[in-house]
Amino acid sequence: xxxxxxxxxxxxxxxxxxxxxxxxxxxxxxxxxxxxxxxxxxxxxxxxxxxxxxxxxxxxxxxxxxxxxxxxxxxxxxxxxxxxxxxxxxxxxxxxxxxxxxxxxxxxxxxxxxxxxxxxxxxxxxxxxxxxxxxxxxxxxxxxxxxxxxxxxxxxxxxxxxxxxxxxxxxxxxxxxxxxxxxxxxxxxxxxxxxxxxxxxxxxxxxxxxxxxxxxxxxxxxxxxxxxxxxxxxxxxxxxxxxxxxxxxxxxxxxxxxxxxxxxxxxxxxxxxxxxxxxxxxxxxxxxxxxxxxxx
Length: 296
Known about the structure:
Layout: H1 3-10, H2 13-42, H3 47-84, H4 88-123, H5 128-143, H6 145-160, H7 165-187, H8 197-220, H9 235-285, H10 289-295
């Protein structure tokens, strides 16, 4: 039995919970900070750009919370239960099932937003420059939605084995890269052309791609207790993940729907300026979410 598995099965509850929670809280805080970093730099592009990001924010945050918290929690739970029950083969097979689920969901998000994005952001109050900014940013970040879902799938696999540190480190590395990359792509420098709000979207995807590569390497190379192996797909293993993830998704959907509806009300009452201000405040409020998800 590995030390991590022994800790999960026989360690004292409170110390074990805190030991496992703080790296997870760190990674969720790092992910939430992406929005604040982007907001800081995009704010200098003007109100329309900031309002456009605010229109995209509820959907983007929902995707992060679903992939990293709800479905991610289902993946971690299923793998931890398989390892705790001595079902090592099932734990390995669950890795493949997790990747299948998250790939499908990632592609689904991409298709839905690319198809319905213009109508959605218009319904939320986007118009003129703010709507164009929202679509530019949204098409990029949701075009690469699979990266976000796969990154959180690999991170959840590692967390399910008790390895909380590597997911935290990889996501933090991605955020550290984002800090200089975001202004570089937004405003340009030297041979790098200014991309405006599109640069903010590309910076997010580059940081996420780096995190995905690190996490995928850890799981695929065999450095994880649960390893990626080809196996026959079984509904029982899909159900083991979704039984937890689907229920946890209800709260996430409720929260983001509330934010989206409030954004629409604010847009109709105050226009782009009000949406920009409300979106910035919402990002600050979302910093509370990682504390709950980290312990979860």
